[in-house]
């Protein structure tokens, strides 16, 4: 079917209402349509000249936008056959585990699929219920307060500041901005620091939500190995200073790596010397296994490091409380940006979080033994049923980064989903394209659920790889 340039132009909306070169703004909007499935694999895109006429721009703008998306692997361009969204055409919609990761992972399902893709505690802990009871008592006593606090309520800001001070980074409440989860924190930072077309340094692989956020702001992603190894040389390259650098120094998502103390000091010093804003994602930092200490934040080594935190992984995903720790001028700027879109967060949740913060370390220690046991159980089951899979142990966090012996994570994730297990393919976590051989799974489910999940994965793998049938299934579970 011949693509309709005017129709696609209408679907783009106000694509040019932003900062930066038009071709990057156009590429960003097309990228979003592709990633959200509105432009499915195999869909034809309009020819350069026809699309430029429909958009009232020069042909060079369309060509440059198409080239940007081609370099990212989102479209293919062939002389004689035109421009198409990458991937084989599909006659009808079907379940998928491709990018973007958020919509399909977070949508509720009414089947018995075991969800090992999106990691977070499956239920609120008793301590959260107690904290809410106290929060409601506090709320009943509020007067003379209309409830708009773009930076967060003072009590919670002080509690978060004390949390960092206890960990060796002296912090005042004026250095804290409370956000609606860690994802909003990353979005605010991207809005504040990243210009369209500006480079952002990320680890390969890394948290997929961060990649989607930076792409949404039309960043050009540049990758370094886990721990931003090679950072000093990368920022010394003339004309290549990044707008922002992002990493997870503790319990890296997805590999579970922990950056050693010397590397932390060198990285913080190099970022300060180069004037590059360095974001340390600490959402998983508290999730150590028994006997280990939570490493100090990178801000211990330089107060200019920006720390991002959240209670979604350590307490419960439904508690939408996150934060940013930075120098006051940065916090003031972020608060102004936040107020444009969101005049403040939920007050009962903030009162509850203020009750929880002083006990956060103890709460995570109390659950550490169970997390370790489930980590060990999942690895043991995978070793028994899928011995050729490479499944390195981790020292904390929530996920395992698994290398498949052959094939690719995207196609196997489809096979696994057909067998009732959702896993995250590695391609969506690696902006350099090096994650194709990997999948990410979490180990937070109950042992009997993990056992059933591994049975289903083994069945899917033997079908996918053309091997012999797996061992008989364990007792079926109602998931």
UniProtKB/TrEMBL annotation:
Molecular function via GO: DNA binding; DNA-binding transcription factor activity; pyridoxal phosphate binding; transaminase activity
Pfam families given in the database record: Aminotran_1_2, GntR
Domain of life: Bacteria
Domain HTH gntR-type: 20-88
Keyword Signal: no
InterPro entries: Aminotransferase_I/II_large, HTH_trans_reg/aminotransferase, PyrdxlP-dep_Trfase, PyrdxlP-dep_Trfase_major, Tscrpt_reg_HTH_GntR, WH-like_DNA-bd_sf, WH_DNA-bd_sf
Family according to the record: In the C-terminal section; belongs to the class-I pyridoxal-phosphate-dependent aminotransferase family.
PANTHER family: HTH-TYPE TRANSCRIPTIONAL REGULATORY PROTEIN GABR
The protein's name in its UniProt record: PLP-dependent aminotransferase family protein
């Amino acid at each position: 079917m011949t693509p309709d340039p005017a129709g696609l132009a209408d679907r783009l909306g106000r694509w040019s209402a932003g900062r930066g070169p038009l071709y990057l703004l156009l590429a960003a909007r097309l990228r979003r349509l592709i990633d959200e499935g509105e432009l499915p694999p195999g869909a034809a895109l309009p020819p350069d000249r026809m699309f430029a006429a429909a958009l009232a721009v020069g042909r060079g703008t369309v060509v440059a936008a198409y080239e940007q998306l081609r370099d990212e692997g989102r479209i293919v361009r062939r002389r004689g056959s035109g421009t198409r969204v990458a991937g084989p055409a599909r006659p009808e919609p079907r379940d998928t585990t491709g990018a973007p990761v958020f919509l399909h992972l977070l949508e509720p399902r009414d089947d018995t699929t075991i969800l090992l893709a999106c990691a977070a505690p499956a239920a609120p802990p008793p301590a959260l219920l107690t904290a809410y009871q106290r929060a409601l008592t506090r709320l009943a006593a509020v007067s003379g307060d209309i409830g708009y606090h773009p930076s967060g309520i003072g009590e919670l800001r002080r509690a978060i500041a004390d949390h960092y001070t206890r960990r060796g980074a002296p912090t005042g409440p004026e250095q804290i901005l409370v956000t609606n989860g860690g994802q909003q924190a990353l979005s605010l930072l991207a809005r504040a620091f990243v210009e369209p077309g500006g480079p952002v340094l990320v680890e390969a692989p890394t948290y997929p939500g961060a990649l989607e956020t930076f792409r949404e702001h039309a960043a050009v992603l540049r990758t370094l190995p886990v721990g931003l190894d090679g950072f000093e040389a990368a920022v010394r390259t003339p004309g290549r200073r990044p707008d922002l650098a992002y990493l997870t120094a503790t319990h890296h998502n997805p590999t579970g790596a922990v950056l050693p103390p010397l590397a932390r000091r060198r990285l913080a010093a190099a970022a300060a010397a180069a004037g590059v804003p360095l974001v340390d994602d600490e959402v998983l930092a508290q999730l150590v296994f028994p006997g280990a200490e939570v490493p100090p934040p990178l801000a211990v080594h330089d107060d200019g490091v920006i720390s991002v935190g959240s209670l979604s992984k350590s307490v419960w995903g439904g508690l939408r409380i996150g934060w940013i720790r930075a120098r006051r001028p940065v916090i003031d700027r972020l608060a102004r940006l936040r107020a444009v879109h969101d005049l403040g967060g939920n007050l009962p949740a903030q009162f509850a979080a203020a009750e929880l913060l002083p006990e956060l370390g103890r709460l995570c220690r109390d659950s550490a033994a169970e997390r370790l046991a489930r980590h060990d159980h999942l690895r043991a089951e995978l070793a028994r049923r899928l011995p050729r899979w490479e499944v390195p142990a981790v020292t904390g966090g929530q996920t395992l980064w698994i290398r498949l012996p052959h094939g690719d994570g995207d196609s196997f994730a489809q096979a696994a989903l057909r067998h009732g297990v959702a896993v995250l393919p590695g391609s969506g976590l690696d902006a350099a394209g090096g994650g194709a051989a990997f999948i990410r799974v979490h180990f937070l489910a109950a042992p009997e659920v993990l056992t059933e999940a591994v049975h289903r994965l083994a069945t899917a793998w033997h079908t996918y790889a053309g091997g012999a049938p797996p061992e008989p299934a364990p007792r079926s579970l109602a998931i």
